[in-house]
Automatic annotation (TrEMBL):
InterPro entries with a match to the protein in the record: AAA+_ATPase (IPR003593), ABC_transporter-like_ATP-bd (IPR003439), ABC_transporter_ATP-bind (IPR050166), P-loop_NTPase (IPR027417)
Entry superkingdom: Bacteria
One GO MF term: ATP hydrolysis activity
Name by which UniProt lists this protein: ATP-binding protein
ABC transporter domain residues: 17-248
Keyword Chaperone: no
SUPFAM superfamilies referenced in this protein's UniProt entry, alphabetically: P-loop containing nucleoside triphosphate hydrolases
Pfam family of the protein (one): ABC_tran
Keywords: ATP-binding, Nucleotide-binding, Transport
Amino acid sequence: MTATSPLAAEAATPARISVQGVTKTYNLAGKEFFALDNVSLDVADNEFITVVGPSGCGKSTLMNVLAGLDKPTSGQAVVDGKVVSGPGPERGVIFQQYALFPWLTVRKNVEFGLKTAGLGAKERREKAEHFIEMVGLSQFADALPKMLSGGMKQRCAIARAYAVDPTILLMDEPFGALDALTRVKLQEQLLDTWSQEKRTVVFITHDVDEAVYLANRVVVMAARPGRIFDVIDVDLPYPRTEEMRLSPEFTALRNRVWHSVYHQNTRTAAGSTPSTLTA
Ligand SMILES: Nc1ncnc2c1ncn2[C@@H]1O[C@H](COP(=O)(O)OP(=O)(O)OP(=O)(O)O)[C@@H](O)[C@H]1O
Ligand SMILES: [Mg+2]
């Protein structure tokens, strides 16, 4: 295991997000269970990180720590040089369970964060309209979440997160419930926004293809204990294109990530795999 001093890392490249030795344990039938075990990761400003790994390896736990919704048992998450102690307006979160307010319409859900941010009614309405259209829900702007399908709820949650314009996007399987076409469309929109307006993105997915297509780096996690198993640089240029998905370079990267995720048991013990990563 390579130990990297957080201070040394900071001096080299000031990380926008720095996860420093984060451990999260739960009590499971009287035994300590490591949802995350000493996870360290630096994400540079404007970097696009995707996180893949088997179910239960701690991806959402890591996201919740970054979002400030869950406290680590030890270690810390640092954003813009400050230890995360709660949610903040610079971090937009899209949850795995698209957490909409059930009593508010699509439009009101999307407007919600804008109201908190102090925008006037007209501006809220216009902004919400734009993002509702972007995710293809204009026809359902006045519908309540219970009238939406899973994929539509997910799109509403995406519109709500994008609308407040956060500079950090924390996305937990945001496109998981979408059909292939909508998924590709939203991947492209996300990359467009990211390249035009620059965001720092941490994006969890089960889809290896998606992980490679979007990212600067793919972080592969492993379970029991939840840890970073591998990190793979994606040296493909942006803009990423549909043709690129068919290229030998893309295929080689996808196979590498796939191998890392699905053949974790064939690798050597956790102690000899990288669990500390630096941008
Ligand atoms: N509140 C909790 N109490 C006890 N155990 C928990 C709690 N939250 C998470 N865990 C455990 O921590 C581990 C990691 O959970 P987490 O939700 O982070 O996994 P994940 O990688 O996001 O999985 P998935 O891909 O299925 O979403 C799991 O084994 C889970 O059972
Ligand atoms: Mg999860």
